[in-house]
Design a protein that fits this description.
Blueprint (H helix, E strand, L loop, with lengths): L8 E3 L10 E3 L12 E5 L2 E9 L2 E5 L15 E5 L2 H13 L6 E4 L2 E5 L4 E2 L3 E2 L5 E4 L5 E3 L1
Antiparallel strand pairs: 1-6, 2-5, 3-4, 3-6, 4-5, 7-8, 8-9, 10-11, 11-12
Amino acid sequence: MENLVNDHATTLNGGIDASVTSLVVVTNTTPANRASFRIRIDNELMLVTANASTTWTVTRGVESTTAAVHANGAFVSVVVTEAGFTAWFADVLALNGDLKKISSGTSTIYADTCRYVVNQFEVVSGAHLIINETGSLEVG
């Protein structure tokens, strides 16, 4: 399941070329050993698929971004994107009400079979994704 981790930031500990699928960050402020979250370095989005302390395995150039060279010390921000949120929402719906409460940073989502109440998540584009009282996804 996609993890909605937002507002965590670090920097690269060593530059990377456009083909590597493992990177090292200076500090890891995400929840321990949590994977399946998205990061942004410069203009590239990546999906972290494994999180081993400060070494992360990534899928490069997700969401139509292009894998690029990134310098040592480049800013790494953990982000919630529209595609990531949509994947998470599909996973929640697939649980068919088995999930009662999900916490993500300062936002808490309560879920049952047919009702979803969610705080707003800011996505990379600056839009907001909102799940309304009927369970419909809105972009505002």
